[in-house]
Amino acid sequence: YGKNTIKFLRLKREGKKHFVKEVEVCTHLRLTSAHEYLDGNNAAVIPTDTIKNIVLVLAKKNGIQTIEQFAIDICKYFMTTFCQVAYVKTYIQEVPWQRLQENGIPHIHSFICVPEGIRFCEAEQCKNGPLVVFAGIKDLKLMKTTQSGFEGFHKSECTTLPERNDRILCGELFCKWSYGECKDFDFDCVWYMNKVRECVIEAFTGPPDCGVYSPSYQKTVNSIQMLILSRVSQVQVIEVMLNNTFYNVLDMKNLGLTNDKEVLIPVEAPYGSCTCTLGRKKFLEA
């Protein structure tokens, strides 16, 4: 049990310069006994309102250096403060605020919310066990208007889909990876310096002057995973899900026009989905 959707903005001031972290936190606990479920005895139950207040107090006292570190702080607090807690899991997602710039000069206290994917993380720990951290990005929408196809697929009496060697590739991406057990980890370094998000975009789009051909959504998902694993040594296992949007060319013959893939209509539902989990062999064997 626990508390979902704890939303707040943490403002940090360093002189005239301000920093913001707006987050949504979900924290859940499992206790060492189940008396509250079986007997109606609430003696060991930490109220969900208390859980919410603990999250807010930790934000006030510790600040939010990174959402991963804040998730670790929350897990450690519950594990070290309450002997009846057997397991704690915290999920945090961050509102994508970016500092505004004018002529390349960062503004000291103004920000813009950009829809370039939402950063999130999870931390979980069992009593006497290691603290494990996951991170990821979701709601990242990508599109390329050519160099995508789907041919040579299995056909049956129910197949109506035509083969295509030139189509729009468009999807909403969810990407989650595991760091394994974390000790003195610089999460922002992985996020900003190793640029996992940029790896996703590079694998999806290819070089800016020529692109890269995608024979299937599955191949694109695998290319994203392989590029991240090759460049970011801290990532152990990575899950990628691509919910794809299809576009149909609008027939404009009745309007006396030839439509050469210039006006297309999105297919709202149903949409396709592709999911794959890939990890380093030594980590999976362990």
From TrEMBL:
This is Uricase. O2 binds at T48, N244. Catalyzes the oxidation of uric acid to 5-hydroxyisourate, which is further processed to form (S)-allantoin. Belongs to the uricase family. It is found in: Peroxisome. It catalyses: urate + O2 + H2O = 5-hydroxyisourate + H2O2. NCBIfam families: urate_oxi. GO terms for cellular component: peroxisome.
